[in-house]
Amino acid sequence: MVSEYDFWLLDLDGTLVDVEWSYTRDVFDRVGERIGREFTDMEADIIWSGLTGSRDRQLLEWGIDPVAFWEAFHDEEDPLVRAEQTYLHEDAEFVGELEEPVGLVTHCQEFLAEPVLAHVGIEDWFDTILCCTEQTGWKPDPTPVEQVMADLGVAKNGHKGVLAGDGANDVGAAWNAGLDAIHVERVGHDRRGRCVLGDYRVESFDELF
């Protein structure tokens, strides 16, 4: 199916790479101290992995101000430590062999994404990289996806593209931008508590070949 597409877009965290749980737990412990609210393992997992979709909506449901949370979260993240504890999923290595244009659309902030990509050695896999911000919009908004498509020089009509990610927001962004969607389920349906639909639903990219 790889040859079906004229270009590929991919998410980063949870799709191509993941971080050791000890790092995630430590960050949420320190964020909790700053905002005066402890996080259980399940809550930390829900926010880190985006298991319920919109992280901001989930924070609001818990009575947490998203602005205050993310300010503390980004202050507590150490780019070099995070990079050192990040690993590449072996089944994602096919991306480095793609001959078609490849773009990265990630919610991971630039100050974190750059050292992570360098540490796992995949920064040269992508023809363009976009780290979402309030200005670009956030998946499932198609705007950041369409911006990456413009950077790649692929029109919405006339080129068949696909976006692969590990969350419902990735699938939504793909469909909203008129692309096919691959959902790679890294955490399992039981842990997520729901099934995420996509044009392709896999537990490993190896299933695509």
Describe what this molecule looks like in 3D.
The protein has 209 residues and is α/β, with parallel strands linked by helices. It has two domains: 2-18 and 86-208, 3-Layer(aba) Sandwich (Rossmann fold), CATH 3.40.50.1000; 21-82. It is 39% helix and 15% strand. It has a six-stranded parallel beta sheet, covered by helices on one side. The protein has a two-stranded antiparallel ribbon with strand order 2-3. Helix 9 links the parallel strand 7 (180-184) and strand 8. Helix 1 (21-35) crosses helix 4. The longest helix has 15 residues, at 21-35.
Show the helix and strand layout.
Elements: E1 7-10, E2 17-19, H1 21-35, H2 41-49, H3 55-61, H4 66-76, H5 79-84, E3 86-88, E4 102-106, H6 110-120, E5 128-131, H7 143-152, E6 161-165, H8 168-176, E7 180-184, H9 189-192, E8 200-202
Parallel strand pairs: 1-4, 1-6, 4-5, 6-7, 7-8
Antiparallel strand pairs: 2-3
Keywords: Kinase, Transferase
Pfam family, one: Hydrolase
GO molecular function: kinase activity; phosphoglycolate phosphatase activity
